[in-house]
From TrEMBL:
Superkingdom, taxonomy of origin: Bacteria
Protein name: C_GCAxxG_C_C family probable redox protein
Database matches in NCBIfam families: C_GCAxxG_C_C (TIGR01909)
InterPro entries: CGCAxxGCC_motif
Taxonomic placement: Bacteria, Pseudomonadati, Bacteroidota, Bacteroidia, Bacteroidales
Pfam families from the UniProt entry: C_GCAxxG_C_C
Length: 148
């Protein structure tokens, strides 16, 4: 798939009602041979800033999951791979913060939507969908660009 297809897929999944975290992981699940049901269940509780705690943005945590599939270590003694994967997580987080000045759900909502818009769930269209698209695109670049 091309970059825009991943972006469109993640946003379409979100439009269907999947959590931000689910939308990101599901968009990339086929690429990593992760069955959809497992992807849905693994990422289900990370939406709305981790179970609606409004902490780390769910799109970002979904991105962390994708980076784990792409770069994570399966061997607990493989510190080189583990540390490289952690660096990718920090890189994604920094890219999101460069765009939005935060990767915290509460702060994103506060900055981009009013309390009334959040109460009416309008924030999904105002900011969440946009962050999902950006994270899906950033992941594509991170995964398809050769590593140093």
């Amino acid at each position: 798939m091309k970059k825009q297809e991943y972006i469109d897929k993640a946003q379409s999944l979100f439009d269907e009602g999947y959590a931000c975290s689910q939308s990101i992981l599901l968009a990339y699940s086929k690429q990593f041979n992760l069955d959809e049901r497992t992807a849905k269940l693994i990422s289900a509780n990370f939406g709305a800033g981790m179970g609606r705690l409004r902490q780390k943005c769910g799109a970002v945590t979904g991105g962390f999951m994708v980076l784990g599939l792409a770069y994570g270590n399966a061997n607990p003694k493989d510190m080189e791979t583990k540390l490289f994967s952690y660096k990718k997580v920090r890189d994604l987080n920094q890219m999101v913060e460069d765009i939005y000045e935060t990767s915290n759900c509460f702060e994103l909502l506060k900055k981009h939507a009013t309390e009334a818009e959040v109460a009416e769930r309008q924030h999904h269209k105002i900011i969440c969908r946009r962050v999902i698209g950006d994270v899906a695109g950033l992941l594509y670049d991170m995964i398809t660009t050769p590593n140093p």
